[in-house]
Amino acid sequence: MKNILITMTAVAFFAVSCNTQPKKQSSDSQKSNEVQKHAIVDEMNKLTPSEVSKGWLLLFNGKNGEGWRGVNKTTFPAGWVIEDGNLKCIGSGRGEAGAANGGDILFAQRQFSNFDLKIEWKISPGGNSGIFYLGTEKEGKKIAKTAPEFQILDNDLHPDALLGKDGNRKAGSLYDLIPAKPQNTKPAGEWNSVEIIVYQGTVVHKQNGETIVEYHLWTPEWNEMVKNSKFSSNNSDWANVPKEGYIALQDHGNDVWFRNIKIRPL
After folding, report:
1. Are 153 and 93 in the same domain?
2. Same-domain check for residues 19 and 140
3. Containing domain of residue 219, as a range?
4. Which end of the chain is more exposed for a tag (fewer CB within 10 A), N or C?
């Protein structure tokens, strides 16, 4: 009987040891992931000495909403938060109709005319958002009524990808005007790098290292293009984009993240 009890005890001890071992490995894995995440956060939202010497300005510090406020507001809206060093819009799941707690935000400390803007973004599944430039605040109007928009979209799930003309509402496009070609947007949940260059009316959209849109403001071709878009009926003076304006980010009711937002005046 003693031998049987000893054997049973040994088996139970072995089983317990085996069951607890994966927990230790899982805990170690979690710690490793946390360390890696903190390392990534520490490297984000900073300027290199070379960038500083070339005149780059950091628009988002990765810690708070300093420098930013809601469009036509005096404060930073509660619907935007800082998450793991990212500037995040908290989605309502109800599209534009559900943007009451957030709303569009803009960098309020300075307006820009000629510039090189860099920013990274990722969108939630089925999400929609945008980056505005040369924007103007008008009481009672969203900044989309005044500014060109670099479209942000989940091309696979959001219906806007099928609307407009020739894909001009897909991600990277000049929204409803010029389609992004090539269409090189990464799937929802993955980061995309963007560069928007504006210089004396010439505008270039770059994404993930490729030029995807190029156009010229204030030309007869520009006016004709706007006339044939949704903006001709929504706002008759939309074509008169100002020569200086705000950088802004859109709340379209979906989760969207931004980081490494920097600009170099030209």
Report:
1. yes
2. no
3. 49-265
4. N
